[in-house]
Predict the structure.
Amino acid sequence: MTGNLGLRGRLMMAIVPIALLAVIAAALAVFAFRITQSQQSVVADEAIPALVTGQGLYARSNLVSNIARNVAVAQNADEIEAASAELDQIASALNEDIAALGALGVDAGILGEFSSQTETLVGNIRDLKDMQTSLFANEVTTRALLDQIVTGANAIEASARGLNTDANMSLTNSASALYALVGRPEESDEAFDTLDKLLDVDALDAQNMSDLRAIAFQIPGLAEQVVAARDKDALDKVKFAINPILTQLQKGIDLMPDPEAKEAAKATLTELQAALDPSKPKNLFSLREAEFATVAELNTILDENAAITEQIALTAERLLGEMRAKIDVANSGVASTIATAEIIMIVVAIAAIVIPTLILWLYVSRNLLRRLIGLNGAMTRLTKGDLDAEVKDNGSDEIAHMARSVETFRENAREAERLRAQNKEAEERAEEQRRTALHEMADGFESSVNSLVAELLTAVNEMRDTADNMERNAGDNVTRAAEVNEASQNASSNVSSVSSATEELSASIREIERQVAKAEEISQTAVTEAQKSDETVRQMSETADRIGEVIELITTIADQTNLLALNATIESARAGDAGKGFAVVANEVKNLASQTQRATEDISEQISEMRAVSSQAVEMISTIARTISEIDSISSSIGEAMRQQGAATGEIANGSEEAANGVRHVSQNMADVSRAAEQFREMSGSARTVSENLLAKAHSLQTEANNFVARVRSE
């Protein structure tokens, strides 16, 4: 089956598997790259963006937790508002991240949990904000109420302090007065009154006011304890202690000696009771209890936020774990694809090494190279001139064709060698024969042309002489005709003279007829000789044509040989270095064909010149033949005129006996004779002119023939 494929087909069959391996390798690589690209696309376009977004989501959830802590520890409303604004931005970003993760194909359940958890956390933070705002407001109210309690207690203490001072001064004054009355019995009543006053009023007022001051001093401390209480128990302890203090304070105020101060202290006491009495609305204890409740709820929310934050962390970890798993799956797929592609590429590489090696060893080395080396050796021997070296190849591909072409070339070279020897001998013989033939042809042509030209010149000279005689005779005839005409006028007186003149005229006419007949004979002979010359020249032209055909055949053979050499050169070029020897032999054949072609071109040029000269000779001879034909025609016309003149003269002769009765007829006939004689003389002049032209052309023909023969002999 592969025998009909040829070298190109076999080489293609040898190259196609290698090309197919390359195509398969490229296709597998492209396929692996596409799969890898698809898997990497999943990683790059989905998993990694989802992972990054998930990490950002987790980071933002941590920020939300931080915001919750910031809200919980905020010191003022500005910090809460700043945290709230930041929370709004982060919440919006969280929603965008969740939407982006949903678009990337993340598990909707996880995203739902994450969204729910973050929404709960954000809601708790907003509740924290409200609670913290409430705590700030409660703190402001507590501080204001505490200031009010401290101010009221201080006012009562100041009033008690003043009354205490007054009581002490009165006590001092009473004691001084009492000391002044000691030792004076007459002043004993007054002394006892002073002593009673000292003991019952001044000392008691001083003691009561001092006790009131001490109680008033306790009020700010208790209020501070209420504000400083950290739990309900501590607050309850203060609450249990505050009621006796308020009762004692009320009692102390009731014991104030100054009514105005007492009334002012009672009003202040009322305010203090409203601020410190747990049964009153909006007292310090209720504010603190509300604060404790808010703080407890805040702590609960913070604990819930911590739990939610942990849940968010777990959810984020699940989310990130899913993304990492997706990346790991994609990376595993990429690694598996790369490993499979590596195995396939290794197999293809091994096949790409083994198959070309087998092809090179089994086909190229053992078949192509062996045959090409054998062919190269045969061509080398042929190049060195060993034409006996056989070129054998039993294949059917281009190498076999090349081998057969080389074998054909060897046979052609041997044949060309034989033909070259034959051609050399044939050329030498042909050259000798050509020279001999040319010389013989030139001799024959020269002899024939010179003979014909000599005969033609002789005939022309004779014709010219005859024409001269005819012209002279015609002149004589004209003269005699004039004389006859004149004589005919005197015919009546001299018939005998007319008869004599008529006889002489008849004799002249017979002589003219004889000369005209001779001129016709010479013209016919000249026409015959011209036709022979024309035939000879035509035969020579035909011989030149046959020689030209032989030369064309030789030229064709040389062209074919040159074409064969060109084909051999092309085949040797295809064979590369193995065909260099073949190219040398082909070049030698080409040079031989070129030499043969140049020789045939030289011969062809000479034959072309001979053809041209032959054509000129044929043309000249044809012109001479036409001229002689014209002379023959003129001679025929002259003969006819002479016959007419002879007839007229005969009539004159016959009528001379009737001269007396037919002078009129004689005069008329003589006029005709005179005209005929004049025409004859003109025709004779034309014949002489034609003969002169013919003579000149005959000389030209002889000159051209001699030049042609000289050129032929010089070859």
